[in-house]
Design goal:
eight-stranded mixed sheet
Length: about 475
């Protein structure tokens, strides 16, 4: 809304054969399997000593699914399985070795005569998963017919370790996999499978990814490799996830459906207001604020350079100021140094920020992050108010500030007046005009000084924002 000022929007919908969040987490929850907590891998807290049973079950369901859909019913040319255990590449290698070993053993055993004890035992293991493999299949083939094809599937299975570098040390790219060359693909990987990687024909996903704390909505979405156009073989799709991940996906899908409904029924202006003012509708939640962001960007004083939407901001700020009852800050003797403030509910401060127009990317991001931070202060630190200052309210024509060019970008050099310790009246500087118990926003009326007729003597409103240092320290301590 800040950068583009769109006048209309269109909500896109996928094709009828698309299977997304609603398909898996609302309409077909029976396709989601819970990985037991003791089998959820983590490189620090739960390094598994052996291949977990849930992975064995997932592999067998996948192989039987390929046997049914590719070999017997010939509905697909190939199908794939994805295993994403952890962001550490060593974990991927461990899972890759387990899969490689299992597939090799099963291949040898299934090639034995039918009366061999080892084959009978393995057939019994597959039979435990057979009912699940055919549960949603119309006119399913017999177990013996499926098991007979499983050996052919294994012999035509491509197992890939998808990490940032392959065994030769060279970067491995997605297009190196020739999907049509095999009837079955098993991909095991770390961060390369986490987001942005396309797995063709994905049927079974095994993701024992262990999350400490709540995941970001964008991260949750980008891990959804198992969404896609899969209606033709949906009945053989299975997704294995830890309990916490399942709950996160359900929350995410519910939230997404609410957002889509809002976008269909409201203008963008109304949707923006709903998203900002209702904490339950916040698209990125408060965890969009990383400890690093708060420590380095939402800490101490920052200034904005509102050099676009000038007329709209003058109109908006003038209306805002006239509607408030201000209190005078300490008297420092001159109109330039005397300021006033109003203490407002967090929601009203958010509303003020929302309606103040910003059109450059750095300040638009700051505005967005500040709104998120205010939500965090209200929700997690139970802070009800913030402050808005009208700086030098007696200077009707604004305080003069130079307009400079930095890296080919116009910026106001410095909106804050400095300290003064000489003479009869000391002044702490504009940065001393603040309170420490909540976020403070200073409204500065500025008369620009520049060597062009376009900008010289132009009147603008811009903002200075103070993020209390103690708040940042508390946040970093909590969120680390």
């Amino acid at each position: 809304m800040d950068l583009l000022s769109p006048t209309f929007h269109v909500v896109l919908t996928p094709g009828k054969s698309y299977t997304g969040g609603r398909t898996f987490f609302e309409e077909n929850t029976d396709l989601i399997f819970t990985i037991p907590d003791k089998e959820v891998y983590h490189h620090k807290y739960n390094q598994l000593p052996e291949c977990p049973q849930s992975l064995i079950d997932a592999l067998q369901l996948f192989l039987m699914g390929v046997a049914i859909n590719v070999n017997i019913k010939q509905k697909e040319n190939f199908l794939s399985m994805m295993i994403h255990a952890d962001r550490e590449q060593d974990a991927s290698k461990t899972f890759y070795d387990w899969v490689k070993r299992l597939i090799g053993i099963w291949s040898d055993i299934l090639a034995l005569p039918d009366n061999d004890p080892s084959k009978i035992e393995l057939a019994a293991e597959f039979f435990k998963n057979y009912d699940e493999a055919i549960r949603r299949i119309t006119n399913p083939p017999s177990f013996n017919a499926v098991l007979e094809e499983v050996l052919q599937v294994i012999l035509d299975t491509n197992i890939e370790l998808v990490i940032s570098k392959n065994s030769t040390g060279k970067q491995k790219k997605n297009n190196e996999i020739n999907w049509a060359n095999y009837s079955s693909h098993i991909l095991v990987g770390a961060e390369m499978l986490n987001r942005g990687y396309t797995v063709e024909g994905l049927a079974v996903s095994y993701m024992p990814r262990y999350s400490i704390g709540k995941s970001n909505a964008d991260t949750i979405q980008q891990r959804c490799r198992f969404f896609g156009y899969k209606l033709n073989y949906l009945d053989s799709c299975r997704v294995f996830l830890p309990t916490d991940s399942i709950l996160e996906y359900r929350d995410y899908v519910e939230h997404e459906e609410i957002m889509r409904t809002m976008l269909k029924e409201n203008t963008l202006e109304r949707v923006e207001q709903l998203l900002i003012l209702k904490s339950t509708m916040n698209p990125t939640r408060n965890n969009v604020l990383s400890a690093d962001l708060v420590k380095h960007k939402l800490n101490g004083w920052r200034q904005m350079n509102a050099l676009q939407h000038i007329d709209e901001n003058i109109s908006f700020v003038s209306s805002f100021l006239s509607s408030q009852t201000f209190k005078n800050f300490e008297n420092f003797g001159t109109a330039d140094r005397n300021h006033r403030y109003v203490k407002l509910e967090i929601e009203k401060v958010i509303e003020f920020l929302k309606d103040f127009k910003i059109m450059n990317m750095p300040d638009a991001l700051r505005k967005s992050s500040t709104i998120q931070y205010l939500r965090y202060l209200a929700d997690k630190m139970d802070i009800k108010y913030a402050y808005v200052f009208e700086m030098s309210y007696g200077v009707v024509n604004g305080r003069e500030r130079s307009l400079v060019t930095e890296k080919e970008i116009l910026k106001i050099s410095n909106i804050f007046s400095g300290r003064s310790t000489s003479g009869s009246q000391t002044y702490p500087g504009d940065k001393g005009i603040r309170f420490e118990d909540s976020l403070c926003i200073q409204i500065h009326k500025v008369k620009l000084k520049h060597n062009s007729m376009q900008w010289d003597k132009k009147l603008v409103y811009t903002l200075g924002i103070y993020y209390p240092v103690d708040f940042a320290h508390s946040f970093v301590g909590i969120e680390k």
